[in-house]
Amino acid sequence: MREESEDESATADELTHTTSDGDVQMVDVGDKPDSERRAVAVGEIHLRPSTIEAIRDDRVGKGDVLATARVGAIQAVKHTWETIPMCHQIPITNVDTDFSLAEDWIELRVAVETTGKTGCEMEALEGVTTGLNVVWDMVKAIEKDDDGQYPDTGIENVRVLEKEKRRA
Fold first, then answer.
1. How many C-alpha atoms does 110 have within 13 Å on its Cβ side?
2. Quick one: which of 19, 33, 138, 161 has the most CB atoms within 10 Å?
3. Are 69 and 134 in contact (CB under 8 A)?
4. Where are the domains of the chain?
């Protein structure tokens, strides 16, 4: 866990999601100008090589894993404001999803674009985590071991790669 430096510590009066009384609040972005914004997030799911092969060959019993995960990722982006407290509902103008398959893992990269008063990195992160969860759900029957556990399966390295802000 990262330690907070003196420069990063904030008093109650400086916290944007907390009132001076300690109550939670949504940040007022009403006076901010609209900007074109873009965020890209990425993450990976580690799977057995035989599972990756089944995905490549479209031999997973539940259906097309990557197509289903793509739909899940896009839906998650569109509904981020419903799952992250104090997150603004923003107009999503574009979502791109890109899967890369290796021998024992799949990387999902989600790029989100909007024109508005606040950024879209939370939407990109939600797209990645949900998309990877959908992959896990689609392949769990072939990933679990004889004891019903998932020793080779794991979602890792979810992070924001970039975010951009340009005047609209």
1. 32
2. 138
3. yes
4. 35-167
Evaluate whether 64 touches 75 at the Cβ level (below 8 Å): no
Reported pTM: 0.84
Task: Tell me: is residue 79 an annotated ligand-binding position.
Answer: no
Q: What is the pLDDT along the chain (168 residues), one digit of tens a residue?
A: 334 444 445 444 454 665 566 666 666 566 677 789 999 999 999 999 999 999 999 999 999 999 999 999 999 999 999 999 888 899 999 999 999 999 999 999 999 999 988 889 999 999 999 999 999 999 999 999 999 999 999 999 999 999 999 876
86 is in an annotated binding site: yes
Residue positions annotated with a catalytic role: 137
Beta strands in the chain (DSSP E): 35-46, 92-101, 105-116, 154-167
107 is in an annotated binding site: no
Residue 88 assigned to a binding site: yes
